[in-house]
Structures are given as C-alpha cells and as structure tokens.
Specification:
By secondary structure, this protein is α+β, with helices and mostly antiparallel strands. It is built from 6 helices and 14 strands. The chain is globular.
Length: 359
C-alpha cells in the first residue's frame, strides 16, 4: 500500500502529460496522494472477491486537488444502513465480528452497479461519492456449453487500470464490535456496462458485460472524480461512455489457471498465462478411440473363443440334423419292410384259402 502512491503517480502523470503534449512524453509532475490507512490492515492480493478488502482512490472534499488512497471492502454498505442483526459469520474455527453476517450480505448484494440501474435508490444515495479502483487487471470467465475458461484482462502499456466506482462511509456500525473502531466503514461498488462488438475494444466475445474504465488525463477522469461536479445525464454520457472510450484501447488478455475461482488461490501464479485444454463433455467419455487389437490381446482371444463356440454349435446342429434324417430313414425303412411282410402274408393266406376251396 505504501508503494501505491508511486505507482499511481506513474500511471496518472504519464497519461496526463501525454494527453497535454499530443501523445509525447514530458517531464513528470507529482500528484499529492493522502494515504488513509484507517484501522484495518491491508495486504496486496492477486485475487479479490466480493466482501474482501481492496483499495479505492477519490478526491478530498476539503482539497479537490488531493487524491485520497483508502482500503475499502468490495461490496457497498450504504451509508444509511443500520445494524439490525448481530449474527456473526463463521471464520474457519471462530466467529467473525458482530453484525458481520448482515454487512457481508449487503456487500454481496451491491458489489456491482449496472449502468442501466443508476436510477435505483441505493445508487442515487452515492452518486456524489465517486471513486476509481486501481487494479492490475481483472478476471473474467468465458462460458460455453462444454466448459468455462478464465481470462486475465489487463493493459499492455500501463501498470494499472482504473475502474469507475461508488464508495460509502457508514458510521452506524462504529463501536458495535471491537473490529469496528474506525470512524466509519469504507465500502465500494464497481460500475459495469454492456459489452458490444462495435466497442472501441471488443470484449463481447468474452462476456456480455464489462467493468467501466477511466483513463487518467481525460475529461472523463477529471469530471468523475471532481467532488464539486453535480450529477447529470451529461456526466453519465461523458464518464461512462463505453463504445468509444479510449480507456479500453490498450487492453490485452490471456488464459489463466482455473484455480482463480478459489479465493484461496492468491499468488502471482493467479495472473500468469496458462494454456487451458477444453474440458471433455459427458458424451466424450463414452466415445473411446478405436485402437488396433493385437492377436494376443484378451479382446482378440475372446472374439476367437466366441467364433469357436459358434462353429461347434453349428457342427452339433448339423450332427443332430443328420441323426434326425437317419432316424427318419430308418423309420421309413421299417415301415416299408412291415408293409411288405404284411402283403406277403396276405398273399400266402389267399393261396391257402384257394387250395382249401379246390379240395
């Protein structure tokens, strides 16, 4: 956090000087940055989900030329919200501070503000508390029917990019728990807008929405952070215009480790490029590749055994057929012999009868 003023000066003054000098580098100025450490400790993170602490930058109401750098919770707790439920969230083997369940519930609900929803009462209440969120980049998941692949989006020319946001200072929870010793609880939300193919930088292939960015040294930057600038439609059109904004022009991206979906995966490895292979679908598990079968393989032997069994069965059927034919022939032969004997006996008896008659 102590190094952030230097990074911020580099990002702000380089951009400002280039804008003032037709894109050419010029001697750097120095921007005054006040660090508002508050009571909470802050540790840099490569993976910040809602309800975790990040940094915000806004301009002081007392001195509009001075920037204030402040640790703040990702997810807005409106300044008018009051403590009602003292329930605490569980933190591994211990409980969190009182009212933490209520606070985190609101933070999880209000961590993004859609540009299309600016007329909602919760956002109207913070229109004059405008800030930027300095980040190296952000994670976004590209979804398809077969898989989800995470990307890290960042600037290829600047160390930081700045997201447009609202912040809130809530004093109603002060003293309700030993952890709430600051004069206020600082929280923020990030503004988002639609991503379209016709934008200055097409991000619609990645996700239908994108965070709204501001570039130091531009009119949009100055108007958004000016605490004396009244809210108006023209302010929205100037500062939150997404289709032609030059703040997106230097963006690039690469795929990263899928473990970024786990907040515990928090190291420099989280933003390093990783080639993600497509995930296999369920049907692919049932479509095994056809491989040549060797003569000595069990599958080949089984097939030969099956063929031998079928051949033996066929031979047995033929033997049975021959036997049945032989038995039929024998029966016919016996019947013929019987009939011949009967005929001969009949003839002999007739001869005897004739002889008796002659006598």
């Amino acid at each position: 956090m102590n190094d952030m003023p230097q990074y911020f000066n580099e990002a702000v003054n380089v951009a400002t000087n280039q804008a003032d000098n037709g894109g050419q580098d010029a001697p750097a100025n120095h921007t005054e940055v006040e660090i508002n450490q508050l009571h909470r400790s802050f540790s840099p993170s490569y993976n910040i989900p809602p309800t975790r602490t990040s940094l915000i930058i806004y301009k002081s109401n007392e001195n509009p030329t001075k920037y204030v750098l402040e640790p703040s919770t990702f997810g807005l707790l409106p300044f008018w919200a009051k403590p009602n439920d003292a329930s605490a969230v569980s933190r591994q083997n211990e409980k969190g501070p009182k009212y933490s369940k209520e606070i985190q519930g609101l933070a999880a609900r209000y961590f993004n503000c859609r540009k299309e929803s600016l007329d909602m009462s919760v956002w109207k209440s913070v229109r004059h508390s405008r800030c930027v969120v300095p980040i190296e980049g952000y994670f976004e998941w590209q979804k398809s029917k077969a898989d989800k692949i995470p990307y890290f989006v960042y600037s290829k020319k600047r160390p930081l990019v700045f997201l447009a946001g609202f912040y809130s200072h809530n004093t109603n929870y002060r003293g309700k728990d030993p952890e709430y010793q600051d004069s206020y609880l600082s929280t923020f939300t990030i503004l988002t807008g639609t991503a379209q193919k016709t934008d200055s930088k097409d991000l619609s292939w990645l996700h239908p929405r994108k965070p709204l960015m501001l570039l130091p040294g531009t009119r949009a930057w100055d108007d958004w952070l000016n605490p004396e600038k009244e809210w108006s439609n023209s302010l929205v059109e100037t500062c939150l215009e997404t289709h032609k904004s030059i703040a997106y022009l230097d963006l690039t991206w690469h795929t990263v480790n899928k473990s970024v979906g786990n907040p515990g995966f928090n190291s420099e490895e989280a933003i390093k490029e990783v080639k993600n292979s497509p995930q296999k679908t369920i049907s692919s598990f049932f479509q095994s590749a056809k491989r040549p079968i060797s003569d000595g393989s069990p599958q080949k032997r089984i097939k030969r055994d099956e063929a031998n069994v079928k051949e033996e069965a066929s031979v047995k059927k033929e033997d049975n057929s021959v036997k049945r034919e032989n038995s039929v022939e024998n029966e016919v032969s016996v019947k013929k012999e019987d009939s011949v004997e009967k005929e001969e006996n009949g003839i002999e008896s007739e001869k005897e009868d004739i002889k008796k008659g002659q006598q």
